[in-house]
Design goal:
Blueprint: H1 5-21, H2 31-36, E1 45-50, H3 57-60, E2 68-73, H4 80-91, E3 97-103, H5 107-116, H6 125-143, H7 149-167, H8 169-176, E4 181-188, E5 193-200
């Protein structure tokens, strides 16, 4: 599609506005388009989001098959496989925009708060591993005097964006060159609204 970061950003949030208003266009979801993109993909953006079943990216941004390169895990926690996937989207697929998307009332954040209070009960060792990745943000929030789950989620989203940039030289270089922008945003489950929280790179 050869969009600039600003054009991709505009396209992203215009789709979300259609979703909020219930005026969906359901683009590029037909049989002909499915056949057309079978030979290759050219997404206009990458999305790294929470695995929550209520965050179906193509629906909340009113886009179609082949439009988004989507990477998800519970609590949108950075890991080597996540970094590799997002680097692939930038280097190979040449997306001009990465959106890191969290949401209100996040279960992973709730679990981490419970863990910090000593009330988390889980038999899953890898659930605990995930919680440990979010724990520093919860502790920082408490030191700052807040225990609001949505405020903690906002801090976690911002920290995730910073970690993505700091750990991936490739992504950092793409941002510095003007080829890429990274946006951290939060999704309100009841409203369907995506609100940007932090932007690195030029979207104007």
């Amino acid at each position: 599609m050869n969009l600039t970061p600003a054009q991709a950003y505009k396209k992203f949030f215009e789709g979300n506005e259609r979703f909020i208003q219930g005026d969906l266009s359901h683009p590029r979801q037909d049989v002909d388009h499915r056949a057309e993109i079978a030979q290759g993909q050219t997404p206009f953006a990458a999305l790294f989001g929470c695995s929550d079943s209520r965050l179906s990216a193509e629906i909340i941004f009113d886009v179609g098959l082949g439009d988004l390169f989507v990477v998800r895990n519970a609590g949108q926690v950075i890991a080597e496989t996540i970094l590799g996937s997002l680097e692939y989207s930038v280097e190979v697929l040449q997306v001009p925009l990465i959106v890191v998307l969290g949401h209100d009332s996040c279960g992973a954040i709730q679990a981490t708060i419970a863990s910090s209070e000593g009330t988390l009960v889980t038999e899953g060792e890898f659930i605990q591993n995930l919680v440990l990745r979010i724990e520093p943000t919860v502790q920082a929030a408490k030191q700052a005097g807040t225990d609001s789950i949505d405020e903690i989620t906002a801090l976690h989203i911002k920290a995730t964006v910073q970690e993505l940039i700091s750990r991936s030289t490739l992504i950092d270089s793409a941002v510095r060159s003007g080829k890429l922008a990274v946006v951290g945003a939060t999704y309100q489950l009841s409203l369907g609204k995506v609100t940007p929280l932090v932007t690195i790179g030029n979207i104007n």
